[in-house]
Amino acid sequence: MKNKTKFSLSTTQIILLSFLVTILLGSLLLALPISSANGSAVPYIDALFTATTATCVTGLVTLPTATTWSVFGQLVILILIQVGGLGVITIISGFMLMFNQKMGIKDRLLIKDAFNLNTMYGLGRFIKNVLIGTFLIEALGALLYMTVFVPEFGVRGIWISIFNSVSAFCNAGIDIIGENSLCDYATNTVVNVVTSFLIILGGIGFIVWWDILRVLKGRTTKNKHIFRYLNLHTKIAIITTLILIVSGGLLIFVFEYNNPLTIGNMSVLDKLKVSFFQSITTRTAGFATVNQESLTGASTIVSLILMFIGGSPVGTAGGVKTVTVVVLLCSAFATIRNKSAATIFNRTISVDSICKAVSVVSMFVVILFCAILLLIATTDFSITDVLYESVSAAATVGLSRNLTAKLHLVGKIIIILAMYFGRIGPISLAIAFASSGPNQNVISAPEEDISIG
After folding, report:
1. pLDDT digits (tens, 9 = 90+) for 320-362
2. What is the domain partition of the chain in residue ranges?
3. Which of 174, 273, 320, 380 has its CA 20 to 30 A from that of 337?
4. How do residues 91-112 score in pLDDT, each as one tens digit?
């Protein structure tokens, strides 16, 4: 009897295809005349670019969102942002739970891989909590935004508030206020605090939320040592996030203090607001309160580093992720100190975690290098602008040194690919294109030392 080969997709390949299908459907809707503010269909490449930047929650745009798209077009973009931020698999699973549909093993594997979780236990409750938590936070953010935007824009301010809240929480960085992002609100305390609050909560990661709530529920008011009871992942994500925000904000404050093109003419308090917002938004959010091309060289380097690192795993942010960087640093320091294992917070980091961290950074660097090389080869933009644009696209940040709108067809395609590959995750990309068949080689190859460094 002949063996029949049954074609099937791995869970990782399904996740990649789900994002691709969402982007293509979104681009078709945005290419319709009804999506355009003036009733004339936009070029398909711009519709595709917008659908990609929304689904990949990046924020780079070739056309101004506020003036190019009709309310229908903006609604399509908002839906793409929400779906892209939470993930297609999450949305589908949410509908299954809503209609009391049982999730099979395949569904649970999809959720596990979509969120890069280590267990399939309690996935239904996890999805439910993610959706409820997301919508509650976005609703709160919209209400707080309304205190600023409704008095200024009237009824339209409600729509702006909802759009901005979803975009900020999903770390998309797309707004419908004007063509200069949030620059007109650079010193507005409410807009700064609410946007920062949404960016951090979305980027810190869903499993950090539930771990903190778990510890708070289990601790008594007498026991204030909450931090020690958190999981290792949560500790690393929180501490690293705080270090990056504070150090990034202070460095930008110092480097931009006397720069008249950014914060040089502001009060000290306003300088601090803008500096810390820049530090937060570069963690893959993409909103801007200062022109990025006006930053000093030192601040540009700081922003590039923050964009490269990004947010934390299992959240709406991009980049190589905070935990990934910490794992690599711990492994490097352990090697330098001639230790057999990498440790942090009195816990040993598994070899598997270190291998995954190396894979993520390696693949991300490859994607980034290809984008930079191709843009330099096909455009005449400065290396600094190309580097900024490429890191912003691959890390799904959305900040630009006024280059996106100047991209030609080839440049747009390069950035589209960089955004897509950056959003689905470097390690997911590698797994998806690897052989899905089982490894039949049960005999290990001989081991041999090689020279490193």
Report:
1. 999 999 999 999 999 999 888 899 998 999 888 898 889 889 9
2. 11-430
3. 320
4. 767 666 665 666 666 556 656 6
